[in-house]
Structures are given as structure tokens and as C-alpha cells.
């Protein structure tokens, strides 16, 4: 590969990052939505107002949800320096997403070549899940970055750096707990194949690989001391050791990763790429197997761990989608070295992803449809504030309740609602948000009068006047 080609790939990669930034620019100013509004931004705000720390007690359990607080502390630190603006929060998370793309591009270019690195980064970038998550104050992209860097560090033989990144991953979210187990299993399999004991299985290597567990264990001990429990009780209630539930959850994740959001096309292209590359150049694909096997092994373990829980959200599989995109990029570029071929494939995948950028139904924050939800909720909050009289009590279901109660959430536009007036019962006005199966806690519809409905495609928010019994 010539230096001229490498410069071309660098230019294309930088240009796509600029295009993504332009596409997302207006989203940076959008109010917070769903879990970023209900949990993560309020937890970071609490730390800004009190103390920024990784200690469990630095945020109330209702806000931390028992999770490690590295992601929260990172956001709180940025807010304290640059201000608690919605745009600041979203730009910081977008910066982390860009770092992940740069890491994928550089590492895959190092392991294979710049052309393959570009393909992997572009396929990641164009996924509807990534486009949506890239600017949201949610931990999944940050978790994906730390996990990817941990796996790359181990693959490169830098076990100390693996311990560092794996520790960061575990302090971001508990699901990274599978990382050390994965690399140990990988090392054992590698030992069985090459008949040479890997450095990771020697005493020093094992100590370093286990170090993230010590870090996470210290957090849990502090959690027990400060909050009275190791894991958030609500989350423990969601752990279901039932094979039928496990299979059902695993099926949801597999369907999301390999089929939904147009990824069925990517799955077909990946399978075809593997078949053709094996048939045309077995040595080339063999050289790729060790790193890809490490990624796949992690993806299986990660999905298996998350399937133990009775709660499913597509965004939990963000790192697995990244792993799949890397495997897909390697398989697709193995078929041919033609730039025209690669350009046609990338263009086709871009069209497919664009057509699936949002689905025609409520999908939480998994695709760009979340913008519709934010728009109608913002309109509903604005109208409620406009017509309420002094002494009126507002109410709402989730996430509208926090849109009204969190003055830094981006919805109130300088208006103030006395927290004592915000209630989930005995309200005078009620904002009913998606999902559509949410309802009221009043006995009869005769007490409810529709004031105004706000619609944006499939997104609905309705403002009601509630007459007291």
C-alpha cells in the first residue's frame, strides 16, 4: 500500500468525522432524554453541587443506581470547568465517541492496514445505534472505548495497560466484569494451540489481569459500608437464573446486533466475505483469526452476562455492535483490495443505515427517533408552564416528571417549578409522554380534559387538565 493511498484513507476518515459532527450539531443543544435525564445527568449535577468523587456515597443511590461512578465523575468534572450546559454535556460525550472511532481506525490499521481500519471505523460510525448514542449522556460509548482499548492492550502484550483500561471499564459499568475471564480463557486456548505459555498466564501476568477485580472489589466494599449493600437491590431483583429467560434475553440481543437497524445486510456481507476470503486467500484470513477470535470471545461472554438480567435495552450491546463492525470490516476488505469495491460496499451500507436511522415506533434512545420524543416533550412542558396559574400542581409520567423537576434538563428555559408543587398525584395539569401504554392514577376519564396534544410522527405528548374529585 502506497503512502499516497494511506494519506487518502486518513483524509476520508477525518472528513467522515467532520460530516458526523455537522450532522449531529443541532442535537448537542437538545434537552436530555430518558435515562440521561432521569439518572446520569442528575447524578453528575449532584456531584457538581457537592463533591466529585468515585465513592458510592458521592451520589444518592436513587441517582447512582449502585453503578460505579467514573462516568458520572467525568461528566461532573467537565461541567464544573465548562459549565452545566446541555451543549457542554453532549459535546463531551460526543468527543468520547470520536475518540472511540479514532481508536478503532488506528488500532485496526496497525493490526491489518489503513484500508481495513477505515472500513471498520466507517461501519461503526454509520450504525444508527452509534449515531444516536454518540451525543447522549449515557455510559455505553465510554464503556465501549475502555473495553476496546483493554482488548487491544492485551493483544499487543501490554498487560499493565490492559489492567488499567479494564479497571476503567469496570469503574464505568459492572458488565465489564467479564474482561479478565475472557483474556484468561483466550490465553489458555492460545497456549494449547502454540504450545508456549503466554506471558499473561505467568504469575506477574495473572496478578495484573486480576488487578481490575481488586479495583472493583474496593468499590463494592465501600458500597457496602456507605450504602449498606454491594449491588443495587433493584438490579439484583432483575437477575433471573432461569434458562428460558436467559435464552429469551440472548435472542433479543442477537437479533438486535445481527438483524435490526439494517444490520442483516452487514451480517450477509460478513458471511460472504469470510467464505470468499477463505476460498481465495486462506493464509491472509488466518493471520486475522487471533485478534478476531479475541473480539468474538469477548462478545459472546458480554452478551451472555447481560442475558442473565431480566431487563433488556439495545444500547447495552453497544460494545458488541462495535466488535461486530470490526469483524465485518475485516471480512469485507479481505475479499478484494480494490478501492472501487470498498467504496461501493460502504456506499451501500450507508444507504441501508440511513434508511434505518430511526424506526417508525418508540425505541427509547437506540436510534435517532429519540429526537421526536424530545421535541414533543419540550413543546408540552412549554405549554404547561405557559398556562399554569400560581398554586397549580403539575404532574407527569417518566421522563416528563424529571423534565419538569430538573431545572438543568433543558426543558424549562429559565422557568422555575417549586419542587413541592411537582407531584405524582393530586395534580392540576398532567403531561402524558410516551410510551403509549402509560396512564393516569385517577379512577375515571371524566376528571381529565385534554388541553393540547403534541405529535411528531409516532411521538406523542398530551397535556391534560385534571379536575379534582
Keywords:
469 residues; mainly alpha; 2 domains; four-stranded mixed β-sheet; 4 strands; 62% helix; 5% strand; globular
Protein model, in words:
The chain is mainly alpha-helical. It folds into 2 domains: 3-355, no CATH class; 370-466, no CATH class. It has helices at residues 3-24, 35-49, 61-64, 70-82, 86-111, 114-125, 128-133, 140-155, 159-170, 179-194, 203-227, 233-238, 243-258, 263-280, 282-306, 318-335, 339-355, 370-387, 400-405; strands at 394-396, 429-433, 448-456, 459-466. The protein has a 4-stranded mixed beta sheet with strand order 1-2-4-3. α6 (114-125) packs parallel to α17 (339-355), α8 crosses α16 and α14 packs antiparallel against α15 (282-306). The model has no long low-confidence stretch (mean pLDDT 89).
N-end to C-end Cα span: 77 Å
Percent of residues in β-strands: 5-15%
Please, how many domains? Answer: 2
Q: Secondary-structure element order, as H and E?
A: HHHHHHHHHHHHHHHHHHEHEEE
Assign the structural class, choosing from mainly alpha, mainly beta, alpha/beta, alpha+beta, or little secondary structure: mainly alpha
Principal-axis shape: globular
Q: Can you give the mean pLDDT?
A: 89
Number of strands: 4
Contiguous low-pLDDT stretches (5 residues minimum) are: none
Largest sheet: 4 strands, mixed
Spatial order of the strands forming the largest sheet: 1-2-4-3
Radius of gyration: 24 Å
Amino acid at each position: 500500500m502506497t503512502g499516497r493511498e494511506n494519506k487518502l484513507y486518513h483524509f476520508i476518515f477525518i472528513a467522515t468525522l467532520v460530516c458526523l459532527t455537522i450532522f449531529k450539531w443541532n442535537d448537542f443543544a437538545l434537552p436530555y432524554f430518558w435515562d440521561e435525564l432521569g439518572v446520569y445527568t442528575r447524578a453528575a449535577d449532584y456531584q457538581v453541587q457537592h463533591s466529585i468523587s468515585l465513592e458510592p456515597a458521592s451520589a444518592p443511590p436513587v441517582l447512582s443506581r449502585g453503578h460505579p461512578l467514573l462516568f458520572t465523575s467525568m461528566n461532573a468534572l467537565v461541567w464544573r470547568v465548562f459549565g452545566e450546559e446541555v451543549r457542554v454535556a453532549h459535546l463531551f460525550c460526543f468527543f468520547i465517541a470520536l475518540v472511540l472511532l479514532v481508536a478503532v481506525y488506528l488500532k485496526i490499521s496497525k493490526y491489518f492496514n489503513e484500508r481495513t481500519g477505515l472500513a471498520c471505523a466507517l461501519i461503526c460510525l454509520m450504525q444508527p445505534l452509534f449515531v444516536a448514542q454518540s451525543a447522549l449522556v449515557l455510559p455505553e460509548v465510554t464503556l465501549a472505548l475502555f473495553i476496546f482499548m483493554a482488548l487491544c492492550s492485551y493483544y499487543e502484550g501490554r498487560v499493565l495497560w490492559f489492567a488499567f483500561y479494564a479497571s476503567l471499564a469496570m469503574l464505568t459499568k459492572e458488565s465489564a466484569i467479564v474482561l479478565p475471564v475472557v483474556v484468561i480463557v483466550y490465553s489458555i486456548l492460545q497456549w494449547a494451540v502454540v504450545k508456549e505459555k503466554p506471558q499473561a498466564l505467568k504469575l506477574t501476568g495473572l496478578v495484573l489481569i486480576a488487578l481490575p477485580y481488586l479495583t472493583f472489589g474496593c468499590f463494592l466494599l465501600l458500597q457496602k459500608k456507605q450504602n449498606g449493600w454491594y449491588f443495587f437491590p433493584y438490579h439484583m431483583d432483575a437477575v433471573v437464573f432461569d434458562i428460558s429467560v436467559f435464552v429469551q434475553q440472548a435472542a433479543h440481543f442477537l437479533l438486535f446486533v445481527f438483524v435490526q437497524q439494517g444490520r442483516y445486510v452487514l451480517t450477509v456481507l460478513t458471511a460472504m466475505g469470510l467464505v470468499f476470503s477463505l476460498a481465495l486467500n486462506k493464509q491472509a484470513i488466518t493471520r486475522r483469526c487471533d485478534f478476531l477470535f479475541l473480539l468474538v470471545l469477548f462478545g459472546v461472554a458480554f452478551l451472555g452476562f447481560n442475558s442473565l438480567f431480566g431487563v433488556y435495552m439495545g444500547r447495552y450491546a453497544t460494545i458488541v455492535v462495535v466488535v461486530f463492525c470490526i469483524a465485518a470490516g475485516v471480512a469485507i476488505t479481505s475479499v478484494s483490495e480494490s478501492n472501487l469495491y470498498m467504496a461501493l460496499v460502504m456506499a451501500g451500507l450507508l444507504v441501508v443505515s440511513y434508511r434505518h436511522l430511526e424506526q417508525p415506533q418508540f425505541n427509547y434512545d437506540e436510534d435517532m427517533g429519540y429526537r421526536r420524543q424530545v421535541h414533543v416533550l419540550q413543546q408540552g412542558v412549554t405549554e404547561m408552564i405557559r398556562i399554569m396559574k400560581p398554586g397549580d400542581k403539575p404532574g407527569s409520567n417518566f421522563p416528563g416528571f424529571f423534565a419538569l423537576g430538573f431545572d438543568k434538563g433543558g426543558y424549562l428555559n429559565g422557568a422555575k417549578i417549586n419542587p413541592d408543587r411537582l407531584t405524582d398525584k393530586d395534580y392540576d395539569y398532567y403531561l402524558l409522554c410516551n410510551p403509549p401504554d402509560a396512564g393516569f392514577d385517577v379512577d375515571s376519564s371524566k376528571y381529565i380534559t385534554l388541553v393540547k396534544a403534541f405529535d411528531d410522527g409516532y411521538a406523542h405528548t398530551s397535556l391534560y387538565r385534571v379536575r379534582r374529585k
